[in-house]
Specification:
Length: 134
């Protein structure tokens, strides 16, 4: 047992308290974390708790435009429900392919979020064969 102040606590309790202090330093940060959880729950519920890319159960909410953009951080269109494998694919393995998938499969969200607010152009659509003269 360790002593914290005048109370005696177990190491586990001390670790728990220090973790809480790290996470919840300010009321603003606590409010932001609650908003993140609410936003994620709404994104996952909208998808029926399934990955929007592969259909697996057990999803995470992924941002289309990153969390650093405070205007869009909790916008309902700025999220896609992905399983952990697809989330890793989107963030780390092939972000360009993820943007293309968004453009092809979630076109409205891509245009409203990525196109309008970040000034990004959507990825090139797959090459179309030229029209043949009749």
């Amino acid at each position: 047992m360790t002593t914290m102040g005048c109370k005696r606590t177990t190491p586990r309790q001390a670790m728990k308290r220090s973790a809480l202090r790290k996470v919840s330093k300010s009321p603003r940060r606590r409010q932001e974390l609650r908003a993140d959880e609410t936003w994620a729950r709404a994104i996952i519920d909208r998808a029926g708790n399934r990955c929007e890319k592969c259909g697996r159960i057990g999803t995470q909410a992924a941002h289309i435009v990153g969390k650093r953009n405070k205007v869009l951080r909790h916008h309902h269109l700025n999220g896609v429900a992905l399983c952990p494998l697809c989330h890793d694919w989107a963030d780390n393995q092939d972000p360009a392919a993820f943007r293309e998938w968004l453009y092809l499969n979630r076109h409205e969200r891509w245009c409203l979020i990525a196109g309008r607010f970040e000034g990004k152009e959507p990825p090139q659509s797959p090459a179309q064969p030229p029209d043949r003269p009749v």
